Amino acid sequence: xxxxxxxxxxxxxxxxxxxxxxxxxxxxxxxxxxxxxxxxxxxxxxxxxxxxxxxxxxxxxxxxxxxxxxxxxxxxxxxxxxxxxx
Length: 86
Description:
Blueprint: E1 2-9, E2 17-25, H1 29-39, E3 46-52, E4 54-58, E5 65-69, H2 81-85
């Protein structure tokens, strides 16, 4: 499973771009890339990032590996000490 983040150039923001769309896909990486490059071309100011949706992390208390989304906040992830100190 892959997650695509599409950004658009925007001079009104501090970063110079804004998030337009964040969507999960189950198709192959090649087909996702071709489709999104056609729908959101670079020449119109779009930037596309495609990532693996789930990453393997290690629980800091038990040492067991588990899968979580790549965009899980640090305070919500059992892999961080912050999670266990709350």
